[in-house]
UniProtKB/TrEMBL annotation:
Keywords: Membrane, Transmembrane, Transmembrane helix, Transport. It is a multi-pass membrane protein. Its main location: membrane. It comes from Thalassotalea fonticola. This is Sodium-dependent transporter.
Length: 448
């Protein structure tokens, strides 16, 4: 069975694949947006604390479910169940995570398509194709359908090849590219006038805001979203990990990479906004807060790139390629969840299941595109503000209340024989049982 399913061939392969899933637009776009909306450095400080104190324990729960079950999310959860009602509950939770991943990919593919079109626009301008360049950055159904299709094609191309030849191989290529582009852009932006002011706003926390309820909940929500919790992704990735690996160390390494890249993204975008202000671009909204969300990525930063002259074409190209790569590393994990379910539960060959499921998801994307003003925000809210917190919370409930503690210990000991005597084992089971569900429920209630 393990040979038929495939798996990660190395520790590095898993780390880069899991980090790639975590490091998507939620980090490169979402984290700086949340930082801009929540007082800068105060949000950064709280996010870093909560990522390790709450998101990491929940992340470990999903990895453990997957490695124990050695199967898709539904089957893995059902293997933990002992009673009939638990198995039914497991199906709801596991399939709910798969649906959640599919919904996220349906709107994620559209936004990723925008990133790709904005990456092509500087090339069109270099060749004096101004009409084409204008079309590439103007909202239209044709453009959105075309670039969403292109993005989904790239995702399907990778997933069809399986775990080792697809997910792992391309994660090893895309993640170094992403990190390299990010560092190059940070270095360049830091040489521009106004960057130091943005750096101060990003790194100098207002400690009075640290305990503000909205900031705490936003930081916790960002930590859970950026680690792909509640989407069945980490369950299926966990199922591809060798039993010999130390899950505690692997989970910590992925979390560290995730928060590090989120921090680097803020180190690029917040100073870049102040550089834009120095060049005459408005970066503050009417209420005095930094402009965030789509306006920041598709209005403020392009205005900055335009003011850079010819060099701005290269910077714009590099930035939107960075955003496209970040989106792709996450999309492959989101498609893998539904595909693995179809392959293992319904005996459909991966080569057939991948395009079939991607077509279904693309149809949802098309519906969203033709009703963009209403559907995009609605689907995003449904999946990320409702679906993810609920599924992540129920996964913690499964590990904390349904899965036998002795079985959990035996699973972790397969890669770490001394874990029973570590601080992790003394704290984590109680964290997962009580603290994580309450914390996630807090995020969910706040979203209501």
């Amino acid at each position: 069975m393990a040979a038929a399913r495939g798996g990660f061939s190395s520790r590095l392969g898993f780390i880069l694949a899991a980090a790639g899933s975590a490091v998507g637009l939620g980090n490169i776009w979402g984290f700086p947006t949340q930082t801009a909306s929540n007082g800068g450095a105060a949000f950064v400080l709280v996010y870093l604390i909560l990522a390790f104190s709450l998101a990491y324990p929940a992340f470990m729960a999903e990895l453990l479910i997957g490695r124990y079950g050695q199967a898709n999310a539904v089957t893995s959860l059902q293997k933990m169940s002992r009673k009939a009602w638990q198995k039914k509950f497991a199906f709801v939770v596991g399939f709910g995570g798969i649906i959640c991943a599919a919904l996220i990919l349906s709107f994620y593919g559209i936004i990723a398509g925008w990133m790709m079109s904005y990456a092509v626009e500087p090339i069109a301008r270099m060749f004096s194709l101004q009409q084409t360049a204008d079309w590439l950055i103007t909202q239209s159904n044709v453009r959105n359908l075309l670039f969403t299709t292109l993005f989904m094609f790239l995702t399907v191309f990778i997933i069809r090849k399986g775990v080792e030849d697809g997910i792992e191989k391309w994660s090893k290529r895309l993640m170094p590219l992403l990190i390299g582009l990010l560092i190059i852009l940070i270095v360049y932006v830091m040489t521009l006038d106004g960057a130091s002011e943005g750096l101060q706003a990003y790194l100098n926390p207002d400690l009075e805001r640290v305990f503000h309820p909205d900031l705490l909940v936003s930081a916790l929500g960002q930590a859970f979203f950026s680690l792909s919790l509640g989407t069945s992704v980490m369950v299926i990735y966990g199922s591809y990990i060798s039993k010999k690996e130390n899950l505690i160390t692997l989970g910590a390494q992925v979390t560290l990479i995730d928060v590090s890249i989120a921090f680097l993204a803020g180190l690029l975008i917040i100073p870049a906004m102040y550089v834009a202000q120095h060049q005459g671009v408005a970066i503050f909204a009417a209420d005095g807060s930094l402009i965030a969300g789509p306006s920041m990525v598709f209005t403020v930063l392009p205005a900055l790139f335009n003011d850079m002259g010819f060099m701005g074409l290269f910077v714009a190209f590099a930035f939107f390629v960075l955003m496209s790569v970040a989106a792709l590393t996450s999309s492959i994990s989101m498609l893998e969840g539904p595909v693995s379910y179809a392959v293992e539960r319904h005996n459909i060959q991966r080569e057939k299941a991948t395009p079939l499921i991607s077509v279904i998801i693309f149809c949802i994307s098309a519906i969203i595109i033709f009703n963009l003003d209403f559907m995009l925000d609605f689907v995003a809210m449904l999946a990320t503000e409702y679906g993810q917190p609920i599924i992540a919370m129920l996964c913690c409930v499964f590990v904390g209340w349904i899965w036998h503690r002795t079985e959990i210990l035996e699973e972790i000991k397969q890669g770490n024989e001394q874990v029973e005597h570590t601080l992790f084992w003394k704290i984590w089971p109680w964290y997962c049982k009580f603290v994580c569900p309450v914390a996630i429920a807090t995020v969910f209630i706040h979203s209501l």
